[in-house]
Amino acid sequence: MTMPLMRPARKNPILRTPQMNLPPSARSRVALSLTAAAAEGRFELQVCQDCDSVQYPPREACVHCVSPRLKWRAQTGLGQLLASTTLHHSNDLFFRERLPWRLGMVALDAGPSVMVHLHSEVGEAPSRLRVGARLDRAGQAVLIGFPEKESEHMADDKMLREMGSDPKFRKALVTDGKTPVGQALVRALVKAGADIVWVGHAEPWKKLPGLAELAALPQVTLLPLDLSNERSVITLAGEIGGKVDIVINNAEVHRSHGIGNRTGTDVARMEMEINYLGLLRLSQALGPALQGRAADGVTHASAWVNLLSIYALSNFPPHGTYSASKAAAYSLSQCLRAEMRPSGIRVVHVFPGPIDDEWNQNMPPPKLSPEALASAVIKALRDGTEDVYPGDVAQEWLQRWRDNPKVLEREIAAGGT
Amino acid sequence: MSRQSYAGVAVAVPITVPYQRYSTQGAHWFVGQALQALIQASGVAKDDIDGLCLSSFSLSPDTAVGLTQHLGLSPRWLDHIPTGGASGVMALRRAARAVQAGDADVVACIGADTNHVDSFRQTLGSFSHFARDASYPYGSGGPNSVFAFITANYMRTYGAQREDFGRIAVDQRSNALKNPNALFKKPLSLDEYMAGRPISDPIHLFDCVMPCAGADAFLVMSEKRAQDLGLPHAIIRGAIERHNAFASDPIMVQGGWRRDLADLYAQADAAPAQVDFVQTYDDYPVIVMMQFEDLGFCAKGEGPQFVRDHRMTHDGSFPNNTSGGQLSVGQAGAAGGFIGMVEALRQLCDLAGERTVPGAQLGLVSGFGMVTYDRCLCTGAVLLGRSA
After folding, report:
1. Same domain flag for B222 and B356
2. With contact defined as beta carbons under 8 Å apart, do A337 and A344 qualify?
């Protein structure tokens, strides 16, 4: 059984904060599809469309019939551990700093033999196990050998914790506590064992429903934060920049307008001010602080979550300017992800469909409850995924968008949802 | 179709450019030193070397052809075989056929690599597509972790103990003490072997080779040419190679030698019992043990008992790696694929000094190379005989 993670001792301020050294991140182009699936929490391998052979390592031609028709398909990952080893020496700094490190060689039931990072609960060979794919600190997919049966503290495995951003004992910021989504996120973080949750609120003089109850939680501290105000963002960064491990940027302005049903740009400007420029301000102020603490002990800084929208993929005209601001935020967040990569900070994109809140009052169900959104975020942090499409509407949009973005655009333009 | 014989081909002039733990020279320097030594020791004029077969990992971005201009050679036959531990056997096979066919008269076969302080780490990460995608990101232990799996699985399956691998390492060290080129100069006891620090369980320190810089080389020509030049030489009795054998084994328990073993001995018209010494490829002791099985000296799974029953020193009942092998001399990159070949030539040409295998007539050299993912892909073996 995995020993539960204990609350880490307070940091000794005299000691140098260790810097991040990423695990090897180079991959061939064909191998990046493993990463693309793992980014959404799936374990896929190439399967030959002509002879059904499952391939590994990733290939350009089928190892059995030499067909080029290899498609990435979901795997159960069930297999047999053939051998394990505990590494006591490594040529790579990331591993050298984390030795000893357990590895396994697994014969998948589907065919190929795969090298895995091995969970401490997997027994000695020969034994059954389940292989899954996770993103490592370099943001690249790696295969993990999980025990066949889940156990209570298995997420606290030293290796597995490196692959995710479990909120347990971490300090998090939720940028807007006044919305139902913000409040659900705060409660979910507290439930997940977060040490401190800082909660931003833009207008501290207003008594907003639910905030007082949140503030009463011992883990929660309210902080003034207005993403439209650079000074406010910098002040916040000065207060918590050296401490925050997880940033969840859920602040947004959402109005239901297209182009023709409103005159002027004031609402669109407000949406861009928070949804796009607010993210930019926050990234500039807090990004370096997270990057500098990416290897700071077991509760090191680890993740940045941006609440986007499925409408970032394709414009939803009834919420047209909102969609545009989320598309801008999505694009900027891709930039943030690229800039955070060298430090190993995971940038998570959350693409919900309509949330069950006041700004989607006129949207037909199904609508995503704030609680469901919050639990999808916690799961993404724990599992280390970086693209989350929570709820049925988001899933369906994603599928249609991947199938053919032009068809989706036409359907939506014709009044569809 | 039966394999054509290698009759009429001579292998001569074993050269070693002294190994160094680290060198600031490039691989080209080591190739150049090897070529110069081949010329000086053989009396063959540089312009008469009309074939070149080269193996190296550290020439990049050059390949063998770049070396022709670098060294001022104009060969009419050229081969570049970056196949590491199998490259000695492969070079010999290719060069011998070129000589038989008249495509070249004198072929210089050279395995050379340099080793800068950070070379090994850099080589590991870019060794192959599969390594970059599917093994290096897993702990970056390089071959240590791959052979840890193979060793652990072999131990579990066939009941080998660490001491059994220790016997191989200890006897090789004993041979190395009689080889002035060996980088390891101190005796190794079984207790010291057992006390080696763990690297990647069950691989410990003395199961690992030490990367270094150096070169090994030899010449291939017709027997008549060798006789005219008055060069002591060996003859090729049989030779095999095989790549990516037994790919459906989920983890390596046998090497490709096994597939072509019957051909090897049939071509040589010999049996394993007639072999006077072996130069196995010793990247890890478990692979040496597998070669004893897969080259016909004992049955699969009997390797552990075999090493308990034999002394593997040059004067023992089963001489193995009489130079000390890579485990005790050092692994000079691709020269690691040549070290067994030049040692076998020395034994058969009476150049082995105080580590001579008494009365050796027939020797076996085997090669094993290229851990692109979870096992080595290239295997090869040659039976060399004393010339009449």
Report:
1. no
2. no
Which residue type, as a one-letter code, is found at position A54?
A: V
What's the CA gap between B235 and B363, in Å, rounded? 10
Asked if pLDDT for residue A32 goes beyond 90, the answer is yes
Nearest to A89 among B136, B144, B150 (CB): B144
> Does any domain span residue B123?
no
d(CA A37, CA A142): 11
In sign, the C-alpha dihedral spanning B225, B227, B231, B235 is positive
B2 confidence band (pLDDT: 50, 70, 90): confident
pLDDT in tens, A62-87: 999 999 999 999 999 999 999 999 99
Whether chain A has a CB inside 8 Å of the CB on B139: the answer is yes
| Residue where the block lists tokens 């399967």 | A47
pLDDT value for A416: 79
pLDDT at B1: 67
Residues A395-405 have a mean pLDDT of 97
Residue reference for tokens 């057992």: B194
Counted domains in chain B? 2
Quick check: B138 and A56 CB within 8 A? no
The label of the residue with tokens 């939680």 reads A217
In chain A, where are the structural domains located? 29-149, 171-413
Residues paired with B362 in a beta bridge: B385
Question: Is residue B42 a contact partner of residue B34, using CB atoms and an 8 Å limit?
Answer: no
B102 lies in which domain range? 9-118+213-229
Is residue B365 within 8 A of residue B381, CB to CB? The reply is: yes
Quick check: is B125 in a domain? no
Q: Which residue, among A85, A86, A97, would best test binding to B if mutated, counting the most B CBs under 10 Å from its CB?
A: A85
Supply angle C-alpha A405, A408, A411, rounded to 5.
155
SS3 (DSSP) at B269: coil
Residue B109 domain-assigned (yes or no):
yes
Give CA–CA dist B218/B355, Å, rounded. Answer: 20
Residue of B133, B135, B371 to mutate, testing the A interface (most A Cβ within 10 Å of its Cβ): B133
* Chain B residues with beta carbon closer than 8 angstroms to that of A27: 132-133, 137
Statement to judge: residues B219 and B153 lie in one domain: no
The DSSP result for B306-358, as a single string, is: HHHH---STTSSS-B-TT-HHHHH-B-GGGGGTHHHHHHHHHHTT--GGG--T
Run of H or E residues at A256: none
Contacts of A138 in chain B (CB under 8 A): 137
Query: What tens digit of pLDDT does each residue of B180-197 get?
Result: 999 999 999 999 999 999
Assess whether pLDDT exceeds 70 at residue B154: yes
Domain A171-413 top-level CATH class: alpha beta
Output the pTM of the full model. 0.95
Under 8 Å CB-to-CB from A327, ≥6 apart: which residues?
A311, A312, A313, A315
Contacts of B154 in chain A (CB under 8 A): none
The CATH number of the domain holding residue B356 is 3.40.47.10
Classify burial at B22, counting beta carbons within 10 Å of its beta carbon; exposed 0-12, middle 13-18, buried 19 or more.
middle
